[in-house]
Specification:
Blueprint (H helix, E strand, L loop, with lengths): L3 H21 L4 H6 L4 E8 L11 H7 L3 E7 L4 E7 L13 H18 L3 E7 L3 E8 L2 H13 L9 H11 L5 E6 L10 H10 L1 E8 L1 H4 L6 E5 L6 E5 L3 H24 L3 E6 L4 H13 L3
Parallel strand pairs: 3-4, 3-6, 6-7, 7-10
Antiparallel strand pairs: 1-2, 4-5, 8-9
Helix pairs in contact: 1-4, 1-5, 4-5, 6-7
Length: 295
């Protein structure tokens, strides 16, 4: 467990890292990626050169015999919600960092990006139950509190229940929000969250961020090992020297990943993949830029 001094030091490090990335790398990209996600209708006026054809009001245009465009104004602030998986499998890590460490850093970057854009940010911590809820607010002090909670959260439960987290979001977030769900999505029968995600996808702009370790995908050939399931505590002897076993293990990872992608796609949500030893900055930047391009 971290001491108070270590926590304060780590909070400061994350603040410096996040502000640097927000200022020098994500400048304008976060705002551009999500502007228009919180828009309210203002009026209809005659189409003018340069207007986005996606906003032509075809009913009004047909009535008056020439094109009219819908005008929108951006809502003054957006609400960003972070759904953070605190289950025991997030403590696993073999290269550079644990999955929990990467989730914490990414959340800090997203939170500082939000307040830099004058948005509110809140957090739902979940395992197989809701562990904690931080209501959305604005400001640096609020984000620093979130970062401290990310670093020090001690979940009461070890399992994962994605449906529970999404249903809590659907109940608690009354207005449309920008939602990032960070998890390794290692829940048995993960398809159970599909219905809840479809509901959330209709109401919110939701992006899943699958955080995984290299060994989640591929077993090393190191002979006979005893492995423990972090969430159930079950112990199993595994012969990693067995080529067929390693192949099946890898295929299972890709099959599960593909099912997860399908579920998010059907719900109209995005899904990113972050490996613990890869540069998450480039992946987030590419995602933000990609959302700025016209459909």
């Amino acid at each position: 467990m971290l001491t108070t001094a270590e926590i304060l030091k780590k909070v400061r490090e994350l603040e410096i890292t996040s502000k640097r990335l927000t200022r020098h790398i994500f400048t304008g990209e976060y705002h551009s990626a999500f502007k228009g996600r919180g828009m309210s209708f203002r009026e209809v006026r005659e189409y003018a050169a340069g207007d986005d054809i996606r906003f032509i009001d075809w009913n009004v245009s047909a009535r008056f015999g020439h094109p009219y465009s819908k005008l929108f104004e951006e809502e003054r602030e957006l609400t960003v919600m972070l759904l953070v998986d605190t289950s025991a499998s997030s403590l696993f890590g073999t290269v550079r960092a644990r999955k929990k460490d990467l989730i914490t850093e990414v959340c800090a970057v997203l939170a500082f990006s939000a307040i830099n854009n004058h948005d509110k940010v809140g957090v739902i911590f979940f395992s197989d139950k809701i562990e904690a809820y931080i209501a959305p607010k604005k400001g640096r002090d609020h984000v620093l509190y979130i970062v401290r909670q990310l670093l020090t959260m001690e979940p009461r439960r070890k399992g994962t229940n994605l449906s529970e987290a999404i249903r809590f979001l659907n109940r608690s977030a009354k207005q449309k929000s920008i939602v990032f769900m960070l998890s390794d999505f290692l829940e048995d029968g993960a398809e159970r969250f599909e219905d809840a995600l479809k509901v959330a996808g209709k109401k919110h702009d939701l992006t899943g961020i699958k955080v995984y370790d290299k060994m989640d995908m591929q077993l090393p050939n190191i002979g006979l090992i005893e492995a423990e399931d972090a969430e159930t505590g079950g112990l199993h002897w595994v012969d990693t020297g067995d080529f067929l076993l390693r192949s099946n293990y890898q295929r299972y990872f890709f099959d599960r990943t593909e099912r997860c992608k399908t579920i998010f796609h059907k719900a109209g949500c995005d899904l990113l993949h972050l490996r613990a030893d890869e540069d998450y900055v480039k992946i987030l930047q590419r995602f933000f830029i990609g959302r700025n391009r016209p459909a």
